[in-house]
Specification:
By secondary structure, this protein is mostly helical. It is 47% helix and 6% strand. It has a single domain, classed as Winged helix-like DNA-binding domain superfamily/Winged helix DNA-binding domain (Arc Repressor Mutant, subunit A).
């Protein structure tokens, strides 16, 4: 699947943090109806991608590390799933059994490559700040 539930929830985490100085995992979970174990997993990946930052201690929690005007849906989705493909045969590490079979390119494979490129372009076109109306 191209956009997983984890990707969707990662956008929810960003949405929860966008107008906040800092939120605890519990606050994020309550705001966005996400379970804590799932939120921790997502936050770890978003931290690795330097989209959010974590704070330890009594006043710990999470905040956006990047400006919301610089974060796109593609940034969030790639933080969660760096290798996003519409279908498995678009993965360069996997062999498409039909592309190049009989010396001919697979027209479906080529069309899906085009669609995936357009989709990635669209996902990176607008910032989350703009999408969520926080300009």
């Amino acid at each position: 699947m191209f956009i997983t539930r984890e990707c969707d929830y990662a956008v929810r985490v960003i949405r929860a943090l966008i107008d906040e100085e800092r939120l605890s995992v519990g606050e994020i979970c309550k705001k966005e109806e996400i379970t804590a174990p799932f939120a921790y997993k997502i936050l770890k990946k978003l931290q690795t991608a330097k989209i959010v930052k974590g704070f330890r201690g009594v006043h710990g929690g999470y905040a956006l590390e990047k400006d919301p005007g610089e974060i796109t849906l593609l940034d969030v989705y790639r933080a969660i799933d760096p290798e996003m493909f519409l279908v498995e045969c678009l993965d360069p590490d996997k062999q498409c059994s039909r592309d190049g079979a009989g010396g001919m390119p697979c027209q479906i494979h080529q069309e899906l490559e085009y669609i995936q490129k357009r989709l990635l372009d669209l996902l990176s076109e607008r910032s989350l700040e703009k999408i969520l109306g926080h300009e």
